[in-house]
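Let's practice the habit of predicting before peeking. Look at the sequence and jot down your guess about where helices and strands might fall. Then scroll down.
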Amino acid sequence: MQAKTPGRKNNRQRRRRLGAAAALADPAGIRTIHVATRILIALAEYRDPVRVTDLARKLGMTMPTVSRHLSTWRELGFVDKPEGQETYRLGTTLFTLGQAAAEQNTHVSVAYPFLTERREQGEETTIFTTRFQDHGIVLACLDSGRPTTIVARPGSIVRLPYSPQARVLWAFTHPDAAAIAEAAMHLDYSEQPRFNADAFERKVKFALANYYDYEVEVRRDGLGGIACPVFEHTNEVVATVGLMLASSALSEPPPAHLVRRLKECAAKISAALGSSAWRRISRE
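Done guessing? Here is the structure:
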């Protein structure tokens, strides 16, 4: 009996290894996960409920494939279908998970005291944004406290090429001139025809040179913004700290005191995350 025990143990270990290898070698299952995730991410890019035909066209998938995955996500609560409509939107389960993710995010917990301090220095809404693909996603928003205030909901996506938060995140992730030129040629400028590839390149190069970016009017809605990069211990960009304010309160360039205070906030958060990036910048 003693002689057989190691053999049985080895067999169990061999079966576990084979099971793990089989799971890794299941390309159909992996593809299914990738497809389902792509559909959820695409759904998040729409502001309003969207039709299956539009999602299928956007993703280059067939309508039956998209419909099948949406039905599964709906059963799980990740997707919602408004009553009496043939459209879909993200469901409340994702909202709950997003809230939990933001609360568990170490960067947010480290940044929050400094965001509070920055907001109390003036009456501007302060936001903390991290990367979401090539765009950005708002993790925290401290409103201005005014009777009429600007608010960005946590989970809101801020997009290239218009958002200064998204541009700062992109710029410090892709500082190479060739990458900037390549991206500039392929971005969608249809929402603001006056904003083009040349304008995007100028904005990104400005951000890299000055460690902030701004837009007097981001989406032709009377709102503007300023953003500065936040770095972690590897000195890689992980987030931005930004201001949201009325376009009437911004100028070209933005008021120096707003930029200075925002840079101070970004530097404090970065230092708390173990980064030396802003210290190096101050010495240059």
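How did you do? The longest helix spans residues 5-24.
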